[in-house]
Amino acid sequence: MALAKTKKKSIRAARLDIRLNPQAKEKIEQAAAVSHQSITDFVVTSLLRASEEALERQQLIQLTNRDRDLFLTALDSDVRPNRALRKAAERFKRSGY
Fold it and tell me: How many structural domains are present in the chain?
């Protein structure tokens, strides 16, 4: 049991201190309660989800224009698959996917 406590402490060693107005705190507490989570777990889960979504949106925005142009150019080209691509397609078909 002592190992579990030590491990939990090391996992949650980093801190994030924030200031917020009383109404925001109350809303977060209510949301955590109806989600059957501690306030800490609710806040961490929500912040991680929002962080992942923000990073995904940023990545898509940065890649969209360049990659779209490259993809459309590749679709418009009338190039037949080379030998390596044909072999890769055959291996893929045999793999059962």
Answer: 1
Amino acid at 70: L
CA distance 1 to 9: 13
Question: Which residue type does 66 have?
Answer: R
Q: Which residues contact 42 (CB under 8 A, 6 or more apart)?
A: 28, 31, 32, 35
Token pair in block for residue 35: 């989600």
- pTM over 0.70? The answer is no
In a domain, 66, yes or no: yes
Contacts of 75 (CB under 8 A, 6+ apart): none
- Look up residue 34 and give its two tokens: 């109806």
Please identify which residue in the block is written with the tokens 């889960």: 45
- Domain presence at residue 71: yes
- Measure the CA–CA gap between 57 and 75, rounded to whole angstroms: 25
Q: Provide the domain limits for residue 38.
A: 21-95
* Digit-coded pLDDT (tens) for 24-62: 999 999 999 999 999 999 999 999 999 999 999 888 777
